[in-house]
Specification:
The complex is a heterodimer of chains A (115) and B (111).
Chain A lengths: L3 E4 L2 E4 L5 E7 L6 E7 L5 E8 L5 E2 L8 E7 L2 E6 L8 E8 L6 E3 L3 E5 L1
Parallel strand pairs in A: 2-11
Antiparallel strand pairs in A: 1-3, 3-8, 4-5, 4-9, 5-6, 7-8, 9-10, 9-11
Chain B lengths: L3 E2 L4 E5 L4 E3 L2 E2 L6 E7 L5 E7 L5 E3 L5 E5 L4 E6 L8 E9 L2 E4 L3 E6 L1
């Protein structure tokens, strides 16, 4: 499988601050990356699809202005949680997908704790 | 929209026991089916996948899954589990250009 990295792996921030999470595709250039959120004891929920060079496509119910996604290059997508609140505390996972393939490769995830 | 159900949230087995984890999905059209595994402290890894053809799919580490279209199911099996199989297992369905995941099953294998 392909290698996907995320940074940081764990972050604590105070309410009202913003946090940026990076997702890098190390093995191939990824036109498309995905951002998921995982709540305890629940499944991964797709938040948005990140497209290189264009605006991200957000899933219903996900606030675009709160979860800013930037896919500035074919190997890097970033998720910025703006004005974080305790309810934003979660595990955020990114994935990459090769063109013309349904298979996705997942990063190790970032645990965000908002105090 | 698609939904994916995993019936067992937590399974505890002794080594050498047989394993079957259930997975059902809701949408009846053409789907691609996956099982992913997440070992403690690691990222999600692909165990096996079904796109078409033989409904019995073999994956890595001795795992297999059977696609039963009439039951909307894609159950994961392993004849004899090992302690190293302790992990969380996620069933996933790909259609409408998206992945839909089940809630996961935590498997604990006692040595």
């Amino acid at each position: 499988g392909a290698v996907v990295s995320q940074h940081p792996s764990w972050v604590i921030c105070k309410s009202g601050t913003s946090v940026k999470i990076e997702c890098r595709s190390l093995d191939f250039q990824a036109t498309t990356m995905f951002w998921y959120r995982q709540f305890p004891k629940q499944s991964l929920m797709l938040m948005a699809t990140s497209n290189e060079g264009s605006k991200a496509t957000y899933e219903q119910g996900v606030e675009k202005d709160k979860f800013l996604i930037n896919h500035a290059s074919l190997t890097l997508s970033t998720l910025t949680v703006t004005s974080a609140h305790p309810e934003d505390s979660s595990f955020y996972i990114c994935s990459t997908q090769r063109d013309y393939s349904e298979e996705q490769y997942f990063g190790p995830g970032t645990r965000l704790t908002v105090t | 929209a698609q939904s994916v159900s995993q019936h067992n949230h937590h399974v505890i087995l002794s080594e050498a026991a047989s394993l079957e984890l259930g997975c059902n999905y809701s949408y009846g059209g053409t789907v691609n089916l996956f099982w992913y595994v997440q070992y403690p402290g690691q990222h999600l890894q692909l165990l096996l996948k079904y796109f078409s053809g033989d409904p019995l799919v073999k994956g890595i580490k001795g795992f297999e899954a059977e696609f039963i279209k009439s039951k909307f199911s894609f159950n994961l099996r392993k004849p004899s589990v090992q302690w190293s199989d302790t992990a969380e297992y996620f069933c996933a369905v790909y259609n409408f250009n998206k992945f839909y995941f089940g809630s996961g099953t935590k498997l604990n294998v006692k040595p």
